[in-house]
Amino acid sequence: MLAGFLASSTFLLEHAIWASASGEPTCEGDIEVFRRWVVEGGMLAAIDDVRRAKQDAEVRVTNDLRMVFGESSRAKL
Questions:
Q1: What is the rounded CA–CA span in Å between residue 12 and residue 35?
Q2: Residues with Cβ < 8 Å from 8, sequence gap 6 or more?
Q3: pTM: predicted TM-score of the whole model, two decimal places
């Protein structure tokens, strides 16, 4: 999800920059669309999800192993 938000945000930002540089009358609207997409579109929540997953990575792997192989399992790698 985060990769999709980053890609779409980049395209919206590129368009807003192009509109501003070419003097398009809708430039302010394009900037607002970009701002709303980043703030309200869910990208910040996706970033928080990635942070949370990174913080709990070791615990999650241990729990995953226990769920699949039982209590006495250990990673082979």
A1: 9
A2: 37
A3: 0.62
Nearest residue to 31 via CA among 48, 12, 50: 12
**Phi-psi sector, 12: left (phi>0), alpha (psi -120 to 50), beta:** alpha
| Residues 40-62: tens digit of each pLDDT | 888 888 889 888 888 878 888 88
Pull the structure tokens for residue 72: 């006495």
Q: What are the structure tokens assigned to 73, written together?
A: 């399992």
**Residues 43, 37: contact at Cβ < 8 Å?**
yes
What's phi and psi for 39, nearest 5 deg?
Answer: -80, -45
State how far the Cα of 38 lies from the Cα of 9, in Å rounded to an integer.
7
